[in-house]
Design a protein that fits this description.
heterodimer, A: mainly alpha, MetI-like fold, 2 domains, 12 helices, B: 259 residues, alpha/beta, Rossmann fold, six-stranded mixed beta sheet, four-stranded antiparallel beta sheet
């Protein structure tokens, strides 16, 4: 009986403490949503006071977006841009990850190839575009190459660093069970490196988007890059902002998609870190 | 079968501390034999070479000279005749307990139905059947180490090598795992060579205790306690336990400057 009362008392005593803590924690999406709304209102108010050649504002951009959508121009531009983007970015993952595993996993490969990857990350790609045009022409191929080269290095470097950071003892587990090197690489090093690989893949999204626009500016003017250039030449600033914002949204979307893939492929990672799924 | 012998095993390595090169004699002509079915504890102050000895026996580190034999055959690198239990279990985080046990078996070439059946058998032996589908981060420290023991035992090695297996556990978990290890030993009759810095643990579990100092075998003592030892709380009260414990303690403290 005594225990019972004490138990109830402690429960009621604990309640008022627990509740405000839960009330205080706003969901993340709500904070993001509020931030975007505030930013748009701010931009709308101040953007309207600027000469429309020098700047624009959300409602004007929305109208320009609608016009591009109805005319069908947006869809064909998006299609033209996404093809080289996805191919180049995909190739960067398919080649960058094994290359990073190789460089991180084998001393000889690290000594022989590591320096090119480190240097390649800092390569001023824009300066090399004219050369790439000489090699690959002005069309689809050169665009894929530019996106590929920009996305490859962050993926490769991150994978490499990830391999180096794999705890030695986990590899010794593989060794002590006489696992062949390739099995250790695939079943121990690769999963242990996955968070680093995913970070590289995320970093590469932004670079690949930039590379895509650069390619469209400097080679055959096409896709979303063409929409930007043409509207800028016509002093149609609102229309110019449409592809820019679409590209930014695309990068954000791809980022969350990659996050989703990461949680599906490597669920233990978020669980270990104690992150809640939102 | 399961006999491990060290024959004049030495291990030197160099390491750089503050730019200065130091040569460390981790093992200095170490010789001893662990007989089939015996449990032997390696004990000594940190840096005495006990973990190095275990790693050399596993084949994770090569010896500088001398040789280690298992059932008369000289070892060359890691092998399925030895099963390693790591200090912090070191279960692979992306595998469940079951998959971790299966990993070792797969490396031995086992496939299909026998693979699952064997893994399940050993998970049951260590009492992990109900948690076999959990990943390591969902297991307590004690459960992780049970998984580590199951993984090493499942490949049916001649010898079980254990590196301070219970050192990272809280006192209560440690005691129950010590009792379980003795129980597992009674059932599997495995030869066990384990490293510990815990005097009680060495005396409770081992048949013989090897005291190491500065890379050398300083003393080898026989524990005069009969097997089986089903109740360790009774063993702790026996005069033989306390005598042996005191002897080992003396051996550890002889000629050792206390800082």
């Amino acid at each position: 009986m005594m225990v019972d009362i004490a138990d109830k008392q402690s429960k009621t005593a604990a309640l008022p403490e627990a509740e405000p803590a839960e009330r205080r924690a706003l969901p993340r999406w709500l904070i993001t949503f509020a931030s975007i709304t505030g930013m748009l209102i701010f931009w709308e108010i101040f953007g309207r006071q600027i000469n429309p050649v020098f700047g624009s504002y959300p409602s004007a951009i929305a109208v320009a977006f609608w016009d591009l959508l109805v005319s069908g121009q947006l869809w064909s531009a998006l299609y033209d841009s996404l093809r080289p983007f996805l191919l180049g970015y995909g190739l960067a993952i398919v080649i960058g990850v094994p290359l990073g595993l190789l460089i991180g996993g084998f001393r000889t490969a690290e000594a022989a190839l590591g320096i090119y990857v480190t240097a390649g990350y800092a390569m001023p790609l824009v300066a090399l575009v004219p050369l790439l045009i000489l090699w690959l022409g002005l069309g689809f191929t050169v665009k894929v190459a530019v996106v590929f080269l920009m996305a490859l290095f962050p993926i490769c470097i991150n994978t490499w660093l990830g391999v180096v950071a794999v705890p030695k003892t986990l590899i010794e587990v593989g060794k002590s069970f006489v696992a062949p090197d390739l099995v250790i690489l695939r079943r121990i090093v690769l999963p242990a490196t996955l968070p680093y690989i995913m970070a590289g893949v995320r970093l590469a999204v932004g670079r690949a988007v930039v590379a895509m626009v650069i390619a469209e500016f400097f080679t055959t003017i096409s896709g979303l890059g063409a929409v930007i250039i043409n509207s800028a030449n016509n002093f149609d600033t609102a229309t110019m902002f449409v592809p820019i914002i679409i590209l930014m949204l695309m990068a954000v979307g791809l980022n969350s998609l990659i996050g989703f893939v990461e949680r599906t492929v490597a669920p233990w990672q978020a669980e270990i870190a104690g992150r809640e799924r939102e | 079968m399961g006999e491990v012998s060290f024959h004049d095993v030495s291990k030197r390595f160099s390491l750089r501390v503050d730019g200065e090169l130091h040569h460390v004699q981790a093992l200095d002509r170490v010789s001893f034999t662990v007989s089939d079915g015996e449990i032997v504890a390696l004990i000594g102050p940190s840096g005495c070479g006990k973990t190095t000895a275990l790693r050399v026996a596993m084949g994770l580190d090569p010896s500088s000279s001398g040789r280690v034999t298992v059932d008369g055959r000289e070892i060359n690198g890691c092998g399925h005749d030895r099963g390693m239990v790591f200090q912090h279990a070191e279960l692979l985080p992306w595998f469940t307990a079951m998959q971790n046990v299966m990993f070792g078996l797969e490396m031995k070439g086992m496939r299909g139905q026998p693979l699952r059946a064997t893994a399940e058998k050993y998970l049951e032996l260590v009492g992990l059947t109900d948690s076999k589908n959990r990943r390591p981060h969902q297991l307590s420290g004690g459960m992780k180490q049970r998984g580590g023991i199951a993984r090493a035992l499942a490949i049916d090695p001649s010898v079980l090598l254990m590196d301070e297996p219970f050192g990272a556990l809280d006192a209560q978990t440690r005691e129950s795992l010590q009792a379980e290890l003795l129980d597992i030993h009674a059932r599997t009759k495995k030869t066990i060579l384990f490293v510990t810095h815990d005097l009680d643990e060495a005396v409770l579990i081992a048949d013989r205790i090897i005291v190491m100092k500065d890379g050398r075998v300083a003393d080898i003592m026989t524990v005069p306690l009969a097997r089986p030892r089903p109740d360790l709380s009774i063993v702790r009260g026996l005069p033989e336990f306390n005598d042996t414990r005191y002897k080992v303690w003396r051996a550890l403290h002889d000629e050792v400057t206390v800082h």
